[in-house]
């Protein structure tokens, strides 16, 4: 059994030869690969990987496999996820989030919470979602974001995803804050964009935090610095493989 390491785990009691999966809190402006690279370099472990990407502007929970723990990542990547999302109405961007260029602006001063609630309810359960151009999804073997950077847009097939729960937390026009429990493969950026389209009022994702991956919780995670320091304190007891 590959152990899952939280900030409550006694690392000195681990079966070092088995490797592990660690709960890590990704900071803003780090790519998922940045997290892997930092841990691999700092701890001199050859096999390090992650069980699902987060956009650089997003923060929150990542599952990082070390040593033989990387074998678990395929299974873990299929787990459902919960996000806190902040969606801003009145504009659309080419990336569907705040890092992109505004391509359209709309007057949304008349938008009311009753209309938002109705569309949120319609966008629950099993829905069809088109991946954004700025994503790592491959079309004909090419990552979409590579094409997007060249200003090339291609046809993308809609995929079936599940919105298990969509809860509105606050509405302070033009900003909507939500908690979303979704299936693997759901793009919250696309959800924000589609919500704006259905309300005839552009929208983009302004902030995003992943708070859980099924039973694994953000509050049980390490920061990158905390994990590296804790690891070094017990003299590197994980497998170096």
Give a description of the structure.
The chain is of the alpha+beta class. It folds into 2 domains: 4-77 and 215-233, Pseudouridine synthase, CATH 3.30.2350; 81-213, Pseudouridine synthase (2-Layer Sandwich), CATH 3.30.2350. Helix content is 22%, strand content 34%. The chain has 6 helices and 15 strands. Strands 1, 2, 3, 4, 5, 8, 11, 12, 13, 14 and 15 form an 11-stranded mixed beta sheet that branches. Strands 6-7 form a two-stranded antiparallel sheet. A two-stranded antiparallel ribbon has the order 9-10. α1 runs parallel beside α6 (224-233). The two termini are 17 Å apart.
Relevant terms:
single chain; 241 residues; alpha+beta; Pseudouridine synthase; 2 domains; eleven-stranded mixed sheet; two-stranded antiparallel ribbon; 15 strands; 22% helix; disordered C terminus
């Amino acid at each position: 059994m590959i152990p899952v390491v939280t900030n409550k785990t006694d690392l000195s009691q681990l079966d070092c030869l088995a490797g592990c999966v660690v709960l890590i809190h990704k900071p803003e402006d780090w790519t998922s690969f940045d997290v892997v690279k930092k841990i691999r370099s700092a701890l001199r472990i050859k096999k390090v990987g992650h069980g699902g990407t987060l956009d650089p502007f997003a923060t929150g929970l990542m599952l990082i496999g070390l040593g033989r723990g990387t074998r678990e990542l395929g299974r873990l990547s299929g787990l459902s996820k919960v996000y806190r999302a902040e969606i801003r109405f009145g504009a659309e961007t080419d990336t569907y989030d705040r890092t992109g260029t505004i391509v359209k602006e709309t007057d949304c001063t008349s938008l009311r919470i009753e209309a938002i609630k109705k569309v949120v309810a319609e966008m629950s359960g099993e829905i069809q979602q088109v991946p954004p151009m700025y994503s790592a999804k491959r079309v004909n073997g090419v990552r979409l974001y590579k094409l997007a950077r060249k200003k090339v847009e291609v046809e993308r097939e809609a995929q079936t995803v599940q919105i298990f729960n969509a809860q509105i937390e606050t509405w302070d026009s033009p900003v909507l804050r939500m908690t979303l429990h979704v299936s693997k493969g759901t793009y919250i950026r696309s959800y924000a964009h589609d919500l704006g389209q259905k309300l005839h009022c552009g929208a983009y994702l302004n902030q995003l935090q992943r708070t859980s991956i099924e039973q694994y919780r953000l509050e049980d995670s390490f920061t990158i610095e905390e994990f590296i320091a804790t690891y070094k304190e017990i003299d590197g007891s994980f497998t170096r493989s």
